[in-house]
Amino acid sequence: MKNPESSCKMTLELPRRLRHLSVGRHKTIMSIAVFSVALLSAPVLDAQRSDTGIPHLVKHGTATQLVVDGKPFLVLGGELGNSSASDMNYLNPFWKNFEQMHLNALIVPVYWELIEPEEGHFNFTLVDSIITAARQHKLKIVFLWFGSWKNSMSCYTPLWVKTDEKRFPRARAKSGAALEILTPFSDESRDADAGAFAALMKHIRTIDGPNGSLREKSYTVIMVQVENEIGMIPDARDYSPEANKAFKAAVPQELINCLETHKDSLEAGMRNSWEENGFKTTGTWEEIFGQGLSTDELFMAWYFGKYTDYVAEAGKREYPLPMYVNAALIRPGYKPGQYPSAGPLPHLFDIWRAAAPHLDFLAPDVYFANFSEWIGKYDHRGNPLFIPECANSQSVANAYFAFAEHNAIGFSPFSIESLEDPDHNQVSQGYKVLHELTPLILENQGKGTMAGVLLDSAGQEDKITLGNYLFTVKHEYAWRFAERESGPTPRVGGMIIMLSPDEFIIAGTGMLITFETRAGGNSIAGIGTDYEGRFVDGKWVPGLSLNGDQTNQGRQVFLRGGKFTIQRVRLYSYE
Ligand code: DGJ
After folding, report:
1. Ligand 1: which atom is nearest the Cα of residue 109?
2. Whole-angstrom distance, CA of residue 478 vs CA of residue 424
3. Backbone angles phi, psi at 474, to 5 degrees
4. Which residues line ligand 1 (CB under 6 A)?
5. Mean pLDDT over the full length of the chain
6. Could you give the CA distance from residue 465 to residue 444 in angstroms, rounded to a whole number?
7. Could you give the CA distance from residue 442 to residue 65 in angstroms, rounded to a whole number?
8. pLDDT digits (tens, 9 = 90+) for 469-510
């Protein structure tokens, strides 16, 4: 398989803000010195983006932000269920719900089997209807390309692909059994996917691009995900003849060059495998990385990455919107093959970045409870954090944390159309306040002037240094004992944004906040003023002045759980 040479440029950036983390039992003082790695991007196509002002990514301090219609854009999204975009009669009744839930973007599948039912004959009726409806409901669109692979499988390939195993060979299990998975070692399959994806991107440009026939003054389609949860199952690698041949061949020099260039900044696992075998620079995959499941996975990740990059590049040549891939994460204790292995997972960042320079970032689908741990692995080495999927049952406090602590570009619960009570559910409540905060969040991302909080128990606390103060944030149940006894402890959290060294916006749910001055000595922190309020068109509108019982007579700031609120707090110090 021949792909254009990949570029694997990396540079280092400055460390981020100092942060104290305390988990109740001991205080861990961590200085998060993140040595970031600049985004890989297709230099050739970047010029196109900035010239025409189509949606694109820009650096903002240490953050990366999505720019839409010339302004930074924070995706308050929701992803549709897999089949929900295949019939507009089914989907149309839900558009008002998305507005009621204060979404500003919808993440929508586009199905290879439906846009190219016959080889070379394209039908974009659904795509046009989605874009038109999104415009009518003031929503942006992130399209998901359900092409060669979806949750590892090739179930969305058109029938003419599925039924021609000779032209479009399958991956095979170790047992030799055929799988409904296109092998990534087939140029024919790759070119067919790339052709369909390029046709889709050309069509999107034609109707929504700079001179798009359906475009009013703004762009509707803002990003595209290429494939969905690529990953090899039920074995760590493909055992088809094409795969076996590649596995026994030399590791591509292109990859060796990247590894040599970035030897000192490789992910630990990657580096260890290479080091254990003497940092060899020639040989087969097992000669260079050793024998075992991790080598099988590295091998597959390279070829999945190259195939996907070829598809992405074909699409970008038609319309260079930001493009990314998403990963199914790893359950504890699972081994490669048990989980969809070789996908864009944290331990494979080096391989995916080297293999797929036309992808702008790698994204996690976070359904597990340890949300903060997983998103931290993707806010890494300059990779922008975008969460295309997460459990719609988990608290939207996750979003506050992702935006404030990890400069996330966007957040999107899955199967959004299945949520009841769109006017009052927790996505609606949480997004309403996030919508008000968006200008302030975007202004403060990447500047070390904002922190996120996420707490799951009354025993947890988070310590944050901002401005002239050290904040201690506890779960509201650390104070409201009665509720604590009455059932499970809900996830709570939010964000603290510094307006000045003594003034802060605190937003979220279920947080109890105390503070100390950083001046030391006998200096004591006190509450100057504390208002609950709203932002209307970016302007602060104060409501209640909180004092007395609402601040425990000036001792603490308290955001009650069960709802999302904003407070503006002015602190002062005395001796
Ligand atoms: C993750 C996938 O990306 C989605 O398409 C969907 O299958 C969900 N899992 C279901 O939980």
Report:
1. 5
2. 27
3. -120, 160
4. 82, 151, 228-229, 365, 389, 414
5. 91
6. 15
7. 8
8. 999 999 999 987 766 677 789 999 999 999 999 999 999 999
